[in-house]
Each structure stands twice: as structure tokens, then as C-alpha cells.
Amino acid sequence: MNMPVVLLTAFIALFGFVSPSTASVWLKTGKETSRPYGHVDYCTRNASDCRSRKAASKLPAVSLTVLKRVNVAVNKAIKPQADQQAFGRKEYWTARTRKGDCEDYALAKRAKLLRQGFKSSQLLLTMGHNGMEPHTVLVVRTRDGDFVLDNLSDDVKTIQTAGIRFKKIQSPDHAGRWLRVTGRTSKQP
């Protein structure tokens, strides 16, 4: 084996696993913050979905195949439409709809993943800004990092590649509370 190949192999073996594009990354949270109005209304109608919950002591490995299947299925099942047009209200969140906006997609994905055995503390509604407007997605917390299911893309993305400036996220231990997003971390929450 020639020297450049040996050096390249050694470099990959030593440093290849810490690449920012493949390293596990989670959203870092801070103090409690305001709840979105649509979520307050949703919780009034779905109280059992907005209570204290036991945060998973051990996060599962990511199952990209399952996440992709759910993301694509819900993205195809719901027709994009503003709440005012779909429901006659400025803000209305629901998991059961054939038309709606980003929150409705995220709630429908969450409901589908809950039926497939995911824990509610791993399925977190997350709000931010996508460069054009405020936007809500579902963040799936795994031991391999946080993954984003977005109605604007059929691809399951990491938080680094989602193209969203994250602002707030549901608390893993109480579905009715929201936490400020303060950055990213490589330490498992």
C-alpha cells in the first residue's frame, strides 16, 4: 500500500466520525417560553394530548425508513391551505384534516408516529422561521440526533440541514409547555 493511501485511511479512521454533517446533534433548550395561540386552543380541545409526560430515559435509534414513509404519506394526504380558508379561523390546529397548514401536517405526523409506537416525549412540535415566514415542523428526538419532518420537503432532514432558524419547541416532559431553543448541542439531552 502506498503512503498517501495509508495516510488517507488513517485520517478517515481517526476523524471521519466527527464530521458536522454526520455527527449527532440535538436542539439545545432554555427556559420556558410562550405557548403559540393555536396550541393553546388545540390543548383546550385535546387536553389528554397536552399533559405531563414521562420523558424517555433512553432515546431510540433513528429509523429513517419509518420517518420518511410517514413524512411522505402525510405530505401527500393533506392539501396545503391557510387556516382561514380551510377552517374559517385565523389559527386552528388539528391532526385530523385533509387540508391545512404546517401545524396540521406536524400534528398529523405526530399522531401517525404515536400509533406506530413512538413516545410522545420524542415527538416535539417545533417552531421557527424558514427564511420566508414562521414555520412549524415535527422534530423527532432519537439517540442519533434530532430529525425534522417538514411539509415543505419529503426528505427527513437533520436540524443542521432543515433550513430553519428554530425558536421554540415543546417540552419533552410536558406537551403543554414550550421551551426556548438556544442553539444546538452534540450532547444527548
Question: What would you note in describing this structure?
Answer:
By secondary structure, this protein is α+β, with helices and mostly antiparallel strands. It has one domain: C8orf32 fold (Roll), CATH 3.10.620.30. 29% of the residues lie in helices and 29% in strands. It contains five helices and nine strands. The strands form two sheets. Strands 1-9-8-4-5-6-7 form a seven-stranded antiparallel β-sheet. A two-stranded parallel ribbon has the order 2-3. Helix 3 packs across helix 5. The N terminus is likely disordered.
Low-confidence region ranges? 1-21
Report the principal-axis shape. globular
The first-to-last residue Cα distance is 43 Å
Number of strands: 9
List keywords for this structure.
single chain; two-stranded parallel sheet; 9 strands; alpha+beta; seven-stranded antiparallel beta sheet; globular; 189 residues; C8orf32 fold
